[in-house]
Amino acid sequence: MGPIEIQRRIEEHITGASAEVRDYTGTGDHFEVRVVAAAFEGKPLVERHKMIYAALGAAVDGRNIHALALKTLTPAQAGKDA
Amino acid sequence: MAESTDERIRTTIESNKILIFMKGTPSFPMCGFSAATIEVFNELRVPYQTVDVLKDPEVRDGIKRFSNWPTIPQVYIDGKFVGGCDIIREMHANGELGPLVKDSPQA
Questions:
Q1: Is the dihedral of CA B26, A33, A1, A43 positive or negative?
Q2: What was the ipTM of the complex prediction?
Q3: Contact (CB, 8 A) for A62 and A38
Q4: Domains delineated in chain B
Q5: Which residues of chain B does A70 touch, with a Cβ-Cβ cutoff of 8 Å?
Q6: What's the rounded Cα separation, in Å, for the pair B36 and B84?
Q7: Which residues of B sit within 8 Å Cβ distance of A?
Q8: Cα torsion A81, B86, A14, A12: sign
Q9: Which residue segments constitute the domains of chain A, with CATH numbers given?
Q10: Which segment of A62-76, B43-57, B76-90 scores lowest on mean pLDDT?
């Protein structure tokens, strides 16, 4: 699963989400993902990360995707983080 | 088997205030995310226990099911799942982690 597929799955699974995916080793298995979504509003980080894991399903098993660094923001947080 | 993996995991979590499931040990972490997590707790200067999942394949798979969380490391504080590396680092940076590890029944 590459960056484009990861982005597509997250944006499809989480309504209104916008995802940026970076392959930070260039080896196609270590990714940095930044997701901004209104759906994160009022949700603790654990729940936000679980939403992303759910979107990616079985790919996050250490074989397809070895490492996934996640940053999950609401639109309001993204404004400050920019 | 006298005890199921889930029971073993539960007992370990309940008997340690701060428990980190990681790859390797605090002195020899075998993964950058595990290392980064340990670094946070070292910086906070609080005692913690670790479980090396590489030494225990049953726990390595079992903990993912148990926590409903697909990655290692995993941090439990006072019996509650707190998160993986990114969450721990973020909570450390925004000051949420400090009170959790200090103001607690067993501290």
A1: positive
A2: 0.81
A3: no
A4: 5-102 (3.40.30.10)
A5: 86
A6: 10
A7: 32-33, 68-71, 81-87, 90-91
A8: positive
A9: 3-81 (3.30.300.90)
A10: A62-76
Please name every residue paired with B20 in a beta bridge, in sequence order, or none if there are none.
B50, B75
Using the beta-carbon criterion (under 8 Å), do B33 and A67 form an inter-chain contact? yes
Q: Which range is least confidently modeled, A57-61, B47-51, B95-99?
A: A57-61
What pTM, to 2 d.p., does this model score? 0.87
What the block records as the tokens of A11 is 């944006």
Which residues of chain B have a CB within 8 Å of the CB of A50?
Answer: 68-69
Spell out which chain A residues touch chain B, with contact meaning CB-CB distance below 8 angstroms: 45-46, 49-50, 53, 60-62, 67-71
Please give the Cα distance from B96 to B107 (Å, whole number).
17
Q: B86 pLDDT exceeds 50?
A: yes
Q: What ranges in chain A are assigned the alpha helix state H?
A: 3-13, 45-56, 75-81
CA dist B14 to B18, B19, B60, B85, B99, Å? 9, 9, 18, 21, 19
CA distance A61 to B95: 30
| pLDDT tens track for B18-45 | 999 999 999 999 999 999 999 999 999 9
A7-56 pLDDT, tens digit each: 999 999 999 999 999 998 888 888 999 999 999 999 999 999 999 999 99
